[in-house]
């Protein structure tokens, strides 16, 4: 992974996942669906153990730094497994035998491309996007997908409440859409999750160095001690409620009554610079491994 530049594009993601699979054939890379513009929504499986967990990232366009964060973890996990070296103090072979770690590193590739590369006048969404963004070519504040829907306000966990709190039409951020799961990206993530039996999920966003761990008192008893341990591993602050609804971890907690977390990585102003990734990864890698170990 090249950290000397300023961007991490969909092309970079495809290249890194292809190389990952070539180096470690045991790593499974699949597509769980396609974005509005037809880009693959990838899922990566590390390990083959019975306990299944899920990390997801890249849901908000200008929080694209969470994508290379999880790809870096995939690369390190694979390399340590191949070289028989410990990963954050853990034996990767032991992790592989006890857990299947599913990672969806970029759930909003269209939005991430918009923030990083802008939009060409020939794109069929050009007029719509420019109108949503009030004719501005500056997309740094864009969190939504290409249709102006916030993918983390799309899930059926207090969706109506969130929709009433949010912009009523497509917007660079916070618009909950015409209905829950109206977008192909959120549909794909929901369908993928329902087809698995995850013991826990963690959704990675930026920024603030906060770990949200509850939703409407529906979270199980183990969520608070897990969040406390995660906070010790990272130096992040555990917070029970985010004050919003219809997020992916909210929906998971509500429907499965299992631990779900939103982890806000890094500090600064979105989009965070790619040069901040090493420091973010240093703080978060222990959490990624510890959660996978189920300890």
Task: Describe this protein with a few key phrases.
alpha/beta, 8-stranded mixed β-sheet
Q: Could you please describe the fold and organization of this structure?
A:
- 38% of the residues lie in helices and 16% in strands.
- The chain has an 8-stranded mixed beta sheet with strand order 1-2-4-3-5-8-6-7, with helices on both faces.
- By secondary structure, the chain is an alpha/beta fold.
- The protein has a single domain (10-111, 183-293), classed as 3-Layer(aba) Sandwich (Aminopeptidase).
- It is built from 10 helices and 8 strands.
- β1 (28-34) and β2 form a beta hairpin.
- The mean pLDDT is 96.
- It has helices spanning 10-23, 66-83, 92-98, 109-117, 126-132, 159-165, 184-194, 223-234, 248-256, 277-293, and strands at 28-34, 40-46, 51-56, 99-104, 198-206, 210-212, 237-239, 260-265.
Task: Give the SSE layout.
Blueprint: H1 10-23, E1 28-34, E2 40-46, E3 51-56, H2 66-83, H3 92-98, E4 99-104, H4 109-117, H5 126-132, H6 159-165, H7 184-194, E5 198-206, E6 210-212, H8 223-234, E7 237-239, H9 248-256, E8 260-265, H10 277-293
Parallel strand pairs: 3-4, 3-5, 5-8, 6-7
Antiparallel strand pairs: 1-2, 2-4, 6-8
Helix pairs in contact: 1-2, 2-10
């Amino acid at each position: 992974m090249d950290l000397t530049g300023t961007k991490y594009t969909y092309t970079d993601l495809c290249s890194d996942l292809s190389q990952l699979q070539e180096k470690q054939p045991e790593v499974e890379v699949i597509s769980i669906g396609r974005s509005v513009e037809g880009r693959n929504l990838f899922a990566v499986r590390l390990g083959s153990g019975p306990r299944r967990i899920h990390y997801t990232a890249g849901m908000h366009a200008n929080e694209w730094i969470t994508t290379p964060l999880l790809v870096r973890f995939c690369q390190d996990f694979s390399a340590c497994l191949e070289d028989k070296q410990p990963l954050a103090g853990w034996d990767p072979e032991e992790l592989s035998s006890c857990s299947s770690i599913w990672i969806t590193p970029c759930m909003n590739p269209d939005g991430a491309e918009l923030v990083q590369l802008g939009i060409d006048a020939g794109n069929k969404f050009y007029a719509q996007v420019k109108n949503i963004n009030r004719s501005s070519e500056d997309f740094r504040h864009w969190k939504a997908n290409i249709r102006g829907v916030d993918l983390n306000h799309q899930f059926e966990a207090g969706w109506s409440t969130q929709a009433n709190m949010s912009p009523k039409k497509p917007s660079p951020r916070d618009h909950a859409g015409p209905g829950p799961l109206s977008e192909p990206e959120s549909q794909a993530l929901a369908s993928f999750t329902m087809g698995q039996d995850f013991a826990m999920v963690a959704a990675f966003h930026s920024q603030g160095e906060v770990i949200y761990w509850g939703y409407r008192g529906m979270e199980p008893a183990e969520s608070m001690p897990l969040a406390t341990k995660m906070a010790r591993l990272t130096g992040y602050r555990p917070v029970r409620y985010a004050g919003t609804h219809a997020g992916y971890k909210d929906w998971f907690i509500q429907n499965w009554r299992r631990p779900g977390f939103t982890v806000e990585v890094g500090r600064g102003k979105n989009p965070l610079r790619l040069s901040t990734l090493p420091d973010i990864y240093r703080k978060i890698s222990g959490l990624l491994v510890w959660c996978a170990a189920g300890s």
